Amino acid sequence: MHQKKRKIPLRKCVVTKEMKPKGELIRVVRTKDGDIFVDPTGKKNGRGAYLSKELSVIEEAEQTKVLQEQFKSEIDASIYEQLREIVDQK
Predict the structure, then answer these.
(1) In this structure, are residues 83 and 28 in contact, taking their beta carbons and an 8 Å threshold?
(2) Model's pTM, two decimal places?
């Protein structure tokens, strides 16, 4: 009896369009109420968008407003601050 390897869930970075293991990405969530926040656990309910844990990706997301397109709503600057903090911690 051999042990089955667990399938690693892949998600697509909304900036680079690369498929990466979920753990290598940061999830940003928009709830039904329209609240948008960073979800480090990746388990909160809502529509998620994933970003690679790279400063250049966060910068590009902010400049191209890719998250605004994904969520069809304004993204507060504090979201990008949180994302930068997470990237700096890795």
Answers:
(1) yes
(2) 0.88
Give the CA-trace dihedral at 59, 60, 66, 68, to 10 degrees. 30
CB 51 within 8 A of CB 13: yes
Q: What mean pLDDT do residues 61-80 have?
A: 96
- Residue 86, judged by CB atoms within 10 A of its CB (0-12, 13-18, 19+), counts as middle
Q: Output the domain CATH number for residue 36.
A: 3.30.1230.10
Sort 59 into a burial class: Cβ within 10 Å, 0-12 / 13-18 / 19+: middle
Cα 76 versus chain centre, distance: 15
User: Domain of 31?
Assistant: 10-89
What is the rounded CA–CA span in Å between residue 36 and residue 73?
9
